[in-house]
UniProtKB/TrEMBL annotation:
It comes from Azospirillum lipoferum. It comes from the Bacteria. Its EC number is 6.2.1.44. Residues 447-522 form the AMP-binding enzyme C-terminal domain. GO terms for molecular function: medium-chain fatty acid-CoA ligase activity. PROSITE patterns: AMP_BINDING. This is 3-methylmercaptopropionyl-CoA ligase. It catalyses: 3-(methylsulfanyl)propanoate + ATP + CoA = 3-(methylsulfanyl)propanoyl-CoA + AMP + diphosphate.
Length: 538
């Protein structure tokens, strides 16, 4: 975890000049696992809750080394050279194997690309065509999907190799660690997190070891993560909250990471309540928190070890926050994004203040700067709503294969709106554009509308988010049939299910004669939102 001196303006691996630099200093990528293996080799690093496998920091460090050596051999890298930023995609549920590969990519000089296993083959193929990975590694249960992706992109990504995770693990056994690799520039791309853009096209937010490091330190500062912490991770590792915010923070601080294959309300509550596991930290979306509270086994007394029970991904209703706080559970909302990592958080441990500020996403950590601006780009006063602009060493340098979205001064426009109170606490108001959040997953209407318009029977389509008691919001699709071509609700739903992940598929279909438009022909979605504000998908 050192620095090397370079001339001002000199770029690192892959020609990146985005690393953290002061007066010509360039960061080399920090390696938190190697550090913890040196200072506390026997301390528990991670537990795979699906398999029961447990690794100390020394064991995890050696596993990562062997995995990096396997990558170097598999990518046919010349001795003494790194992987040159070649992409390694992963399709599978949370587990130690995926965690190991993510850190091995850092050591080998590759870029880790975790893929959302909830997506369909056509959706995943689009991501693969954009990232052009050299390897696609799949976990248990995803062989057919991964094979479908490889076959779909054979013409555009001809060198893509398919490998199953078990083969990777077997190939590492008894292998020697890699030596003599060049240092990794902390400003070079390290992880690509895909999130759909408002145009409906997928965008890969780039994270470097610099942005990952500062996201982790920001989260640790806000939420009291240290070497005594035990963090239960249900959040998927294909989201920044999983692979960076939770995993990097816990391992950077020397805590213990419990990797779950996914959220199960009964199992999750049992794990949070189990004194043998000793969970101190947990993060989820508000809908998951509400589900946990509704379980028959919910007992606040059994959650007394919790230091932090955080929510994000969608605004947490103030009433839910207050109910948990009244139970003595340290509920705290926060705010972040694929591009910005950790941006806001509540003062963990101060339950009276959290209750008084229920509905707030909190305060920015020390290294993050925020602005709220109006449409003209001018700062708004406290109490007024403005778009969130964020700047700091935690912010992504841009999107893969796309121009950077930050302005010349480094301010990233989030597209979200918020207001700030007189004490400096921020309250998320809405998305500036049309995106809505269903079960913690971003849904962009333009992508769904494009799929609807694939139907020969559909002339026009419009999608908005409507309230749903289980998922927070779900899609409501308005379709105008072509003249003389009747269309049924089931036909529309079946088509969407064949082309989209289930969380993107509209739960309500409205067959309309026409859609409201402006004089220039633009859809007036605001009118539909007003009309269906009190509607639900039920």
């Amino acid at each position: 975890m050192g620095m090397s001196v370079t001339e001002p303006g000199e770029s690192g691996e892959g020609g990146s000049a985005a690393g953290l630099r002061w007066a010509g200093l360039r960061w080399e990528a920090p390696d938190p696992v190697a550090y913890q293996a040196a200072v506390q080799p026997g301390a528990p690093a991670c537990v795979d809750l699906a398999t029961g496998e447990r690794l100390t920091y020394e064991a995890l460090h050696r596993r990562i080394d062997r995995c990096a050596a396997w990558l170097i051999r598999c990518l046919d890298v010349q001795p003494g050279q790194g992987a040159g930023g070649r992409r390694v995609a992963w399709l599978g549920r949370n587990g130690i194997d995926q965690l190991t590969m993510a850190f091995a990519c850092v050591r080998a000089g590759a870029v880790f690309v975790p893929l959302n296993w909830r997506l369909t083959v056509p959706e995943l193929a689009g991501l693969a065509a954009d990232a052009t990975p050299s390897l696609l590694i799949h976990g248990d249960g995803f062989a057919a999907t991964a094979q479908g992706v490889v076959e779909t992109v054979r013409a555009t990504v001809p060198g893509l190799r398919l490998v199953d995770a078990e083969s990777v693990r077997s190939a590492q056994e008894g292998g020697e660690p890699v030596t003599g690799l060049p240092p990794r520039d902390a400003g070079a791309p390290s992880i690509i997190i895909y999130t759909s853009g408002t145009s409906g096209q997928p965008k890969g937010a780039i994270h470097t070891e610099q942005t990952a490091f500062f996201t982790a330190t920001n989260f640790a500062l806000l939420n009291r993560v240290d070497h005594r912490s035990v963090f239960l991770c249900d959040m998927p590792l294909f989201h920044v909250i999983g692979i960076v915010t939770i995993c990097r923070t816990t391992l950077l601080q020397g805590g213990t990471l419990l990797l779950s294959p996914g959220f199960d309300p009964v199992l999750t509550l049992e794990r949070m309540s189990d004194p043998a596991l000793g969970v101190t930290h947990y993060m989820c979306v508000p809908q998951m928190a509400q589900t946990l509270r509704q379980q028959p086994g919910y007992d606040p007394a059994k959650l007394s070890r919790l230091v932090f029970f955080g929510t994000g991904g969608a605004p947490n209703p103030p009433a839910l926050v207050r109910r948990f706080v009244e139970d003595g559970v340290p509920m705290a909302d926060g705010y972040g994004s694929s591009e910005g990592g950790t941006v806001l958080g509540m003062p963990v441990g101060d339950l009276p203040r959290i209750a008084a500020k229920a509905g707030s996403a909190g305060l920015p950590p020390a290294s993050v700067r925020l602005r709220l601006v109006d449409d003209a780009g001018d700062d708004v006063a406290d109490g007024e709503v403005g778009e969130i602009l964020v700047r700091g060493p935690n912010v992504s340098p841009g999107y893969w294969n796309r121009p950077a979205d930050a302005d010349a001064e480094g301010w990233f426009r989030t597209g979200d709106t918020a207001r700030r109170d007189g004490d400096g606490f921020y309250y998320i108001v809405d998305r500036k554009k049309d995106m809505f959040i269903s079960g913690g997953e971003n849904v962009y209407p333009a992508e769904v509308e494009a799929v609807l318009l694939e139907l020969d029977t559909v002339a026009e389509a419009c999608v908005i988010g409507i309230a749903d008691p289980q998922w927070g919001e779900v899609g409501c699709a308005f379709v105008v049939p072509r003249a003389g071509c009747p269309v049924t609700e089931q036909e529309v739903i079946d088509h969407c299910r064949s082309r989209l992940a289930r969380f993107k598929t509209p739960k309500r279909i409205v067959i309309a004669d026409e859609l409201p438009r402006t004089a220039s022909g633009k859809l007036r979605k605001n009118l539909l939102r007003e009309q269906y504000r009190s509607e639900t998908a039920l």
